[in-house]
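We were asked to recover a plausible sequence for a given structure. The inputs and outputs are reproduced exactly as logged, with field labels preserved.

PROBLEM: sequence recovery
POSITIONS: 622
GIVEN STRUCTURE:
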C-alpha cells in the first residue's frame, strides 16, 4: 500500500485495471517531489542543498545538481500542463536561472570546464529550457538570457568524458543554436558521430569503449539523441532522427522484459539510485512515436514501476529521494553521487510531455508479456538472457557480456556487473566487505590463502535462444560457463581449468529482508528463504562430490534489506587440470525442493558436451 505520507488520488481500476494509476497520480507525485525540495533551496533558488552524503564535486556542484535535475521534472510538469502551468514553478526556476548565472551572486553556479560535473547538469537545464521555452526562456530579461548563454558557452570547443557525456555537449550546444547563440556545429556532429562507434546492433549501444551495458543505454544513449532532435527540429522521418527512432523501437522490444509484474526493474549496473529514470526510454518511445508497445502497455509498465517505488517508501517521509534503492543504501551509489543525484529520476516523468488526451493516458491498461506467459529473451548484443516467470512475476537476467571495464588495461569486478545473475527481486551483495568476498552469483576458485578468483573481464561466446556462454580467467585459472534456462531454473555448466589444490565455490542469488532469512543445507544443496517467501537455492547436479553446502549470511550488505543470505556450494582440493561442475540455480516465490531437483534432473558429461534431461523430458546440450 502507498505510505500515509504520500497523498495520491483514488485509484481507477476501470481505466488502469492492473495498477490503478492514472495521469493524475503522476502529476500528484511530481508535485509532491517538487514541493518537498523548497525548504532546501538557497534564497535565490539557484541551488537545492539536500541532506545526505556529498559527492566528490563539492557542495556548490551538489547544489547546482539539485536545481538542474529538479528543473527537468518541473519542465515536464510545466510543459505538460496544457498551457496552464503552475506560476510558482515558473517563477521558482526562472529565478534560479537569474541567480545562478549571476557571477556576483553567492549562489553562482560553477563555470563549465573540461569534464566537470556541471556539464551533466547543464544538459538537464538545456532540455528543461527548451521544453518550457514559452513560459521561461522567452520571458527572461535580456540580461539574464545573455548570462545563461555565457554560462552554456563553457561547452563550446571543450572536452567531455568519452562516453554518454558526449551527448550532454550535443544537447547543450543545440540549445545554444536554437536561441541564436554561438556554438560549434563540429561539437554537435562529433558527439553524434561518436555514439555510432558504440552502436553494437539490435538497438543496443555500449556506453563508451568496452562492454558497458546497463541502464545508461536507455536513459542516456537512446534518450539524448531524440531530445537533441526535438531541440534541432529535425524531421522525424529523415536523417539521424529516423535512425534513432528505429533503434529505440528495436531496443524497447527487448527492454519491456526488464520489469517484473510488481514493477521492479532488474537490479543491475551503476547509478541505480536514479530508480525510475529507467522509464525514460519507454516514455521516449511514445513521445517519438516509435514504440512497439501499445499505449496501454506503455502506461502499465511505467505506472507499475512508479507505484512499486511509492509503495516501498520512495520518496521518503520528507518527500525526498535518498541515495539508495528503497531507503538509503550507499553501496548502491558511486563517488560522483551527491544528495541530489537521485533526481535524475525526473527523466522517468518524461511522459507528462504527452498531452492528457494522448492514448497512453486514455487507453485501458494492457498486460505485460510476463503477466500472460513465461518469457525467454536472448539479447546477443549485451550478452544477456532474460527469463521471467508468470507465476511469481520475477525477471532474472543472466549475464554473459557486461563487465563495465575498458577493453585493455586494469579491470575491476564491480558486483553490479561481474555476477552471473541479476533479478527484479534481489540485489547483489555490494557493500565493500561483501564485494571483497565475491560469493553471490559467482563461480570462484579459492586459493590456499583464501583468495577468490575474480570475474573481471567477461569474454562472451554465445547468446541464443535459452543458452548463453562466456569465459573469464584470473590467477592462472580459466572458467568457461554456459547457462541454460528451463522454466524458472538456470543451469550453470562450468568447465574449469585450474591448478591443483584450489577450492571451487558456487554462489546463488542473495536474498535480503528486514528479518533474518531462514537457511537449510544438505548433501550438494543449500537454500535460503526470506520471511515473505522468496527462496534462493543452489543445487549441485554434477561435479560437487565430497563438497560442502552452506548458506553465507551478511548484514548491511544488500539494497533489499539489512539481513541477507546466499546459498553456496563448495568443492575442496581440486585435482588440477580440467573439471566440469554443473549446478541448478533457483530463485522463486514458490516452494523449492532441492533433493527432488537433484533426483529428477539428469546430467551426462562427455569430452564434447554436457547433456541435461529435465523432468518433463526436455533434453538440452551445453
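RECOVERED SEQUENCE:
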Amino acid at each position: 500500500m502507498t505510505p500515509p505520507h504520500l497523498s495520491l488520488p483514488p485509484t481507477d481500476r476501470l481505466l488502469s485495471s492492473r495498477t490503478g494509476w492514472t495521469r493524475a497520480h503522476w502529476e500528484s507525485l511530481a508535485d509532491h517531489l517538487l514541493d518537498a525540495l523548497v525548504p532546501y533551496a538557497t534564497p535565490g533558488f539557484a541551488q537545492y542543498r539536500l541532506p545526505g552524503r556529498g559527492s566528490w564535486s563539492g557542495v556548490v556542484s551538489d547544489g547546482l545538481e539539485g536545481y538542474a535535475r529538479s528543473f527537468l521534472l518541473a519542465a515536464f510538469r510545466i510543459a505538460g500542463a496544457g498551457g496552464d502551468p503552475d506560476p510558482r514553478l515558473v517563477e521558482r526556476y526562472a529565478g534560479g536561472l537569474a541567480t545562478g548565472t549571476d557571477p556576483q551572486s553567492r549562489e553562482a553556479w560553477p563555470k563549465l570546464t573540461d569534464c566537470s560535473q556541471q556539464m551533466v547538469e547543464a544538459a538537464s537545464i538545456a532540455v528543461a529550457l527548451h521544453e518550457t521555452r514559452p513560459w521561461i526562456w522567452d520571458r527572461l530579461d535580456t540580461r539574464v538570457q545573455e548570462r545563461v548563454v555565457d554560462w552554456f558557452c563553457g561547452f563550446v570547443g571543450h572536452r567531455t568524458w568519452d562516453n554518454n557525456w558526449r551527448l550532454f555537449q550535443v544537447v547543450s550546444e543545440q540549445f545554444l543554436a536554437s536561441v541564436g547563440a554561438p556554438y560549434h556545429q563540429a561539437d554537435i556532429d562529433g558527439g553524434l558521430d561518436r555514439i555510432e562507434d558504440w552502436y553494437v546492433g539490435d538497438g543496443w549501444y555500449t556506453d563508451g569503449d568496452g562492454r558497458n551495458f546497463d541502464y545508461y543505454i536507455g536513459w542516456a544513449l537512446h534518450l539524448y539523441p531524440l531530445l537533441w532532435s526535438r531541440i534541432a527540429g529535425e524531421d522525424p522521418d529523415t536523417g539521424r532522427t529516423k535512425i534513432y527512432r528505429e533503434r529505440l523501437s528495436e531496443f524497447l522490444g527487448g527492454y519491456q522484459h526488464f520489469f517484473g509484474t510488481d514493477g521492479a526493474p532488474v537490479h543491475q549496473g551503476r547509478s541505480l539510485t536514479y530508480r525510475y529514470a529507467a522509464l525514460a526510454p519507454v516514455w521516449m518511445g511514445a513521445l517519438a512515436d516509435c514504440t512497439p508497445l501499445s499505449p496501454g502497455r506503455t502506461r502499465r509498465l511505467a505506472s507499475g514501476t512508479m507505484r512499486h517505488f511509492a509503495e516501498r517508501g520512495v520518496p521518503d517521509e520528507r518527500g525526498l529521494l535518498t541515495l539508495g534503492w528503497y531507503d538509503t543504501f550507499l553501496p548502491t551509489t558511486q563517488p560522483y553521487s551527491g544528495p541530489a543525484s537521485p533526481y535524475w529520476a525526473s527523466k522517468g516523468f518524461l511522459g507528462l510531455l504527452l498531452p492528457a488526451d494522448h492514448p497512453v493516458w486514455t487507453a485501458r491498461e494492457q498486460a505485460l508479456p510476463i503477466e500472460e506467459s513465461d518469457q525467454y529473451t536472448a539479447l546477443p548484443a549485451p550478452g544477456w538472457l532474460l527469463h521471467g516467470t508468470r507465476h511469481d512475476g520475477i525477471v532474472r537476467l543472466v549475464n554473459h557480456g557486461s563487465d563495465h571495464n575498458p577493453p585493455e588495461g586494469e579491470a575491476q569486478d564491480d558486483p553490479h556487473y561481474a555476477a552471473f545473475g541479476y533479478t527484479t527481486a534481489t540485489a547483489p551483495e555490494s557493500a565493500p566487505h561483501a564485494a571483497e568476498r565475491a560469493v553471490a552469483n559467482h563461480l570462484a576458485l579459492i586459493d590456499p590463502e583464501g583468495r577468490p578468483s575474480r570475474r573481471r573481464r567477461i569474454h562472451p561466446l554465445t547468446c541464443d535462444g535459452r543458452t548463453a556462454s562466456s569465459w573469464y580467467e584470473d590467477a592462472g585459472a580459466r572458467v568457461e560457463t554456459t547457462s541454460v534456462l528451463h522454466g524458472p531454473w538456470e543451469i550453470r555448466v562450468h568447465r574449469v581449468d585450474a591448478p591443483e589444490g584450489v577450492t571451487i565455490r558456487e554462489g546463488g542469488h542473495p536474498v535480503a529482508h528486514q528479518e533474518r532469512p531462514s537457511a537449510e543445507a544438505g548433501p550438494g544443496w543449500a537454500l535460503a528463504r526470506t520471511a515473505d517467501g522468496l527462496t534462493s537455492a543452489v543445487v549441485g547436479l554434477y561435479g560437487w562430490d565430497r563438497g560442502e553446502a552452506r548458506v553465507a549470511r551478511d548484514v548491511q550488505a544488500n539494497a533489499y534489506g539489512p539481513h541477507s543470505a546466499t546459498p553456496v556450494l563448495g568443492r575442496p582440493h581440486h585435482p588440477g587440470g580440467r573439471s566440469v561442475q554443473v549446478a541448478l540455480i533457483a530463485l522463486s516465490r514458490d516452494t523449492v525442493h532441492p533433493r527432488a531437483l537433484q533426483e529428477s534432473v539428469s546430467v551426462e558429461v562427455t569430452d564434447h558436451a554436457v547433456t541435461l534431461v529435465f523432468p518433463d523430458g526436455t533434453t538440452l546440450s551445453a
